[in-house]
Amino acid sequence: MNAELIIFDLDDTLYDTSNRINESTPNFAEMRLLPDVKEVLETIKVKKIILTQGNNAIQNQKIDTLGIRNLFDEIIIVSKSEDKISVFEKISAEYSDPKRVMVVGDRRDVEIRYGNQQGFLTTLVPGFKYKNLVPKDCFEIPTFEVKSLSDILGLL
Q: Which of 134, 135, 152, 155 has the alpha carbon at shortest distance from 13?
């Protein structure tokens, strides 16, 4: 595969959100990247984007707490999951071959669905909160399913 762009989700894709203070409040003091994330991001030499959903200030604080801002070419924060659709559509218009774009995320119903709808390659990582979601239709079946983020290096 010759990806030119990889779009990463943040929550439960790059770090474990299960250690929250409450349902919506991150525990910044305990926030850690998942194993091998930094090494994987440093190894990937194509354009990388974080596309994440949530409060702008909180998502930016997560990125800075995790120390990964400099590992991405662009950071896009949307207020609700459905807003990722328009971002994917814009990216699709920029790439004549959708198979040059890979989406990496933990949710079948968001990253995988929206990526597949654009014809992108999609990679499902084992998340936490949404790991037991079952596909509702063909759009929620990823191109690839990996056991850890480091496995995507073998796909590139």
A: 152
